[in-house]
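Journal club side-thread
Mid-discussion, someone asked how the predicted structure for our own chain would compare to the paper's figures. Pasting it here so we can look after the session.
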Amino acid sequence: MERPRLVLVMLLGLGLSNAVAARAQPFVTVPGTVSHYTANGAYLDSAAEPPFDRNPRISFDARGIPKVLEPSGYEYNPVTIAQWGLRGETLWDLRRERHGRADATAAALWLTRHQRFDGAWPYEFSFAPAGMDAPLPAGWASAMAQGQAMSLLTRVARRTSSRAMARAARRGLLPLEYSVRRGGLVVTFGGHKFYEEFPTQPPSLALNGFMFTLVGLYDVGRIAPASAAQRLFRQGMATLRWALPLYDTEEGLSIYHLGYLTQPGQPLHQSLYYHGVHILLLRALNHVAPARVLRRYADRWNRYVARKGDPA
């Protein structure tokens, strides 16, 4: 069988290339050296992100909520809003920067008020994930958005004692209980359940979005031990441990999604930027749920970085 051709994408700065779905998720945590994680502290290395108001594709509405420039105009992007809030909450946690606390609270309030009846935070614009011939119509949801929104809501709910935000975080679990075919965000591949950043048909199985979802599930499980979060987290971690070899290559550069397997003929999509994000997330998840396979791939992929240079 002929090996799919390789498409290597170098994402600069905040990853604004369309090549690996950055148009839908324009802000992804900048790769760093975080090797530990806690559900009630700084969110990964989000404090390292440049200020959002310096990005030419970002505009703020009258209430100060960021919107992202899309072909359809400036649109609300749940991941962007969650990451803006997570950066703010991290700045408050680390440096007691008041504007950070205000940004985090504003983002959490927006997410609480704009959650759909089924627990999802929808994208009100269409999108075609790179490397997949499977466009998503307006109204699609993302497991990555669920995960990062839940991570923000649990933090702000803990700080403010907001029951509404805690409820919204728990409701965010609902789409992660149902299959994409039933309107949820779960697909089964190789007998294992994946949480889909992009609920395409056929599945895309993006690695960074899947791991951001796991982080959010871990966070909800810390504030609501009796909820489904811990079960969904364990289920997802089992999938991750099984699936990591599918995202690996001979040279040790990780693969962004599995479209090359689910949609034969598609190229491998790889990014030095997202490669760094994968390492960051593997190290954080290994801290909360240690497993030899997580450490092995984090180390292997980090050796590629050492040979080639900083992915960011």
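Post-session note: The chain has one domain: 6-308.
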